[in-house]
Specification:
Layout (H helix, E strand, L loop, with lengths): L2 H33 L3 H15 L9 H4 L9 H12 L3 H33 L16 H21 L3 E2 L2 H9 L8 E4 L4 E15 L20 E14 L5 E9 L10 E4 L2 H29 L4 H38 E4 H27 L10 H20 L7 H10 L36
Antiparallel strand pairs: 1-3, 2-6, 3-4, 4-5, 5-7
Helix pairs in contact: 2-7, 4-10, 5-10, 6-10, 8-9, 10-11, 10-12, 11-12
Amino acid sequence: MTVARWLRFQRKGLAMLHVARGVWGSRVRVLPALLGPPRALSSLAAKMGEYRKMWNPKEPRNWAQQYRERFIPFSKEQLLRLLIQEFHSSPAEKAALEEFLAHVEFCTLFHYHEILDRLQALYDPINPDRETLDQPSLTDTQRLSKEQEVLRALEPLLTQANFSPLSEDTLAYALVVHHPQDEVQVTINLDQYIYMHFWALGQRVGQMPQKSSVGSKRGFFTKSPPTERRYFKRVVLAARTKGGHLVLKSFKDTPLEGLEQLLPELKVRTSTLQRALLNLTLIVSGVALFVNVGMVVLSDLKVGTSLLLLFFAVFMGLRASKMFGQRRSAQALDLAHMLYYRSTSNNSELLTALTLRAQSEHAKEALLARSFLARLPGGANRRPQETSQWLQSEVESWLLTQSGCEVNFNGARAVAHLQALTPSIGLYPPRGFPKLDQQTSVTSEIPQATPRSDNP
């Protein structure tokens, strides 16, 4: 090999190396775009693909194991009346129970007020509805970090409020499956979201309340009869889009298949059946128009066939665009009506609503524990674990009889609520009251109800 030939070969090799570096660099630059949604939502996209392959799924897989109802379906006043009627009929017992409930509310008032103060202080820097003076703007990384901190602080409050988190599998089902009676259907681009979380309580199976399902009972030609559906009395949403901010919202009477209607950054879509019916209507009317008018134009005005067909195609295209636009506008209005009636609280106001609900559920659990443990066989001779298990079984059976709802009652947490009450007015804890050991896992997951102090 000559020197000149070797130099040419070396120059070609360097040129190929530069090209390879350029190609590899371009691949590295576009790699994040090819990866799709973040890791937090990648498994959700995979499960959505699994549900798309299923034929007509009716509910999420293993739904009975995924969702466990924990909400006590009575208000404090209703529960108090029921307990008095069944267990505390004498005037002295009635007065004692009412006094106990007042004591519980007094002991938990300052505790939950302090929790609310901490949540609001934590949420204030990222509050999009803040009415005070503007603070220094946060970077997107700082905002995302504070949002995650707020969500972590909300977890124990949602647990005490007896909300059940909806699993990723449930969310995948809701994003893929559309109920046949939902005229309003929406679609989302999963790549636009950084995270989305749902919590729900009060599962019901029955006819949807009318104002919460505007437009969902109207068929294409006639009104279809209402059907029974699975829905939730309350749903809490926490979602964040790229370039957006944390959205905290609460809704009522939301069907399982309608969860995606609550998300931000969605688009109204026309269902396949409606598109087929609209296209069929356009074709039939177009053919009738062409036969009655087009033939006359061809014979009388001597217009060329190609020109007439072009004019007819443009006319039908404009007509189709107008009809589909009007249809989507009507569906968007129906969606706005539904969200108007379903929405209960947003952003900072949701923190207050959740705190009040948690305090109410706390009082109801203590009230049930006080009434049932007074009838505990064996009294203080039972072990703490047996006590909580007995309480859970008895309360669940009683709630099923009174309401017809299967409720997963947390007996250990209810006993812990009683133990945390201060004996300031001499009510609790009574002498010989069974106590839980220090290894109870449930008590460490929730804030215990104590009077206001530096370490609640």
